[in-house]
Design a protein that fits this description.
The chain has 436 residues and is mainly α. The protein contains 15 helices and no strands. The protein has helices at 3-12, 20-48, 53-78, 83-107, 111-140, 143-175, 180-190, 192-200, 227-234, 236-262, 268-301, 303-323, 327-351, 358-391, 395-425.
Length: 436
């Protein structure tokens, strides 16, 4: 690659010459993956306004049990299949599932059942597809590389999340909502060659792999299919990450339910466009932040501050909503939460997994990212329903409860970041779990 192009890229984010091809492809991987999801997300979210809070809470409860079962099955698969076949196989499987949903809309008359099944399945896909991506990234790149490069990959995801929802906004009315499923399936198939290239050339990154295996043919992990659950419950550090995610889901659910209820008066096509335009705003902001801020925050101010920044902003945001409840502040809070999560919090959280063993990345990480997250959805959904419909609390009172949750989230972020930085500052190659 021309030296001038590398200098230009290096101004945005610090990339070494030997890392550049893999970094660009990883960026493209994240872009395509998130674009495919964001083609589906507005379609899914538009369905939610057709259901009551209780119905939606039941769907989230069902999603939790489905997610827990799926992660157990994934643990069985990852224990027996070579890793170079595992990651592409997962995305081929999801592409096939969305093709089946498309065909079901053509063959079956009961679209109500299809809609609820689709809502649950996309909600599972929403976490699983990106969890596997970051497991793959943290397995390829080292701690030092992650501080420099994961912000770039977060930017790729954010750009994909801008392009993706533009398709429902521009094409939803002309080609039909269900035809968007075919577009998403094709996008997932597009990333398969990228995965194979990254696996084949991971040895080119050997200069900073910090002892990680770089063989082109990686064996299966072996062990028990439920090993990820045992590993998660056995380490304080992993439990801290789980608590971090649980607190995040609690406050995000409060915002989601409020927005869902406000849009009940609109038809589904309008809702799809509204959610799509909201995604465009959020992810446009996330791009700038991910490119120009994330790596600089992590490298200059440390991971503790990086992880705690968005939770701290949420504390002040919820207090503002409690003082002056209104739709405008609620939307602003949603934008800050989501844009900050995509550009700063999520890449920062994924850096934590560069300091653990491969088995933890591929077995335990999905337990945290999916089972704990969806468990948090269940707790949050029924908590909101109880507070709003059971007790009758208004937005202001719920906002104060959320502010306390955000404060606790901030403290957990500081614990995780400080633990990571302590391990890194000693120059130790040992796992972050070895001292917990």
């Amino acid at each position: 690659m021309p030296t001038s192009l590398h200098r230009f890229i290096n101004r945005l984010i610090k990339v070494e010459p030997q890392e550049l091809p893999a970094a660009i492809l990883s960026f493209l991987f994240a872009f395509t993956l998130m674009a495919s999801y964001y083609v589906l997300r507005p379609v899914r979210d538009a369905m939610a306004s057709d259901w009551t809070d209780a119905e939606l809470s039941w769907l989230w409860t069902l999603n939790f049990f489905i997610s827990a079962t799926a992660v157990l099955l994934y643990g069985f698969v990852v224990s027996r299949i070579e890793l170079k076949k595992l990651v592409p196989g997962i995305y081929i499987f999801f592409a096939g599932s969305f093709l089946l949903f498309y065909l079901a809309t053509r063959w079956l008359d009961d679209t109500g059942f299809i809609d609820k099944s689709f809502y649950v399945w996309v909600s599972f896909f929403a976490l699983f597809h990106i969890s596997v991506f970051w497991s793959f990234m943290s397995d390829i790149y080292s701690k030092a590389q992650s501080l420099r490069l994961f912000g770039l990959f977060g930017a790729g995801a954010s750009i994909g999340a801008v392009v993706g929802p533009s398709l429902p906004v521009l094409l939803g009315a002309s080609i039909g909502v269900y035809n968007l499923l075919l577009i998403a399936a094709l996008m997932l198939l597009f990333i398969i060659p990228i995965i194979y290239y990254l696996e084949k050339h991971r040895s080119n990154l050997a200069a900073e792999t910090e002892g990680k295996p770089v063989a082109n043919s990686l064996p299966s992990l072996g062990g028990n299919f439920f090993g990820g659950f045992v590993d998660f419950l056995s380490h304080r550090f992993l439990l801290g990450i789980g608590l971090f995610i649980l607190l995040y889901t609690l406050m995000s659910t409060f915002v989601y339910f409020e927005l869902k209820n406000v849009m009940v008066e609109y038809d589904r096509a309008t809702r799809s466009q509204y959610w799509g335009m909201m995604d465009l705003i959020v992810n446009s902001l996330a791009i700038f932040t991910a490119v120009f801020a994330t790596s600089r925050l992590a490298t200059h101010f440390g991971l503790a501050l990086t992880l705690a920044l968005v939770p701290l902003l949420m504390v002040f945001g919820w207090v503002a909503v409690a003082i002056a409840p209104g739709l405008g502040l609620l939307i602003a809070l949603q934008i800050i939460r989501r844009a900050g999560n995509y550009a700063i919090t999520r890449p920062g959280r994924e850096m934590l997994f560069t300091g653990v063993e491969r088995e933890t990345r591929f077995k335990t990480k999905p337990v945290i990212d999916i089972v704990v997250y969806r468990g948090g959805d269940v707790v949050a959904g029924w908590t909101y329903t109880g507070l709003a419909q059971g007790i009758g609390l208004g937005l202001g009172a719920i906002a104060m409860i959320a502010a306390v949750i955000a404060l606790l989230w901030t403290l957990v972020a500081l614990f995780l970041g400080n633990r990571y930085e302590k391990n890194s500052s000693t120059g130790s190659s040992e796992s972050l779990l070895s001292e917990t």
